[in-house]
Amino acid sequence: MTFFELLWQGEGFSDAGDLAEALAGFQEVKPKELSWQEVCADPSYTPTIRRYRSFEAFLDNEDELETILPTAEMLEQACPAGTGAEAEEPSP
Prior knowledge:
The protein is 32% helix and 22% strand. It is built from five helices and four strands, in the order ββααβαβαα. Mean pLDDT is 89; it is low at 83-91. The protein has a four-stranded antiparallel beta sheet with strand order 2-1-3-4.
């Protein structure tokens, strides 16, 4: 089964079992005051997904099958406005 490792600012912070879950996982770390366009334009954030053959391959330090650099559009579709962490905060 394919395994996805999520990286933010060059550091692994989560994992996922499929691409949709991986894209949605970035909602956890996205600064609330920034749009996905702003995040993707800033090279210090660089949301990155590494796809591995399996979890075992990841643990065995095998090379990833591919590295995915999500676009703002991909992230917006996976994390539409009003969902995720930002939806949990009450309005003032």
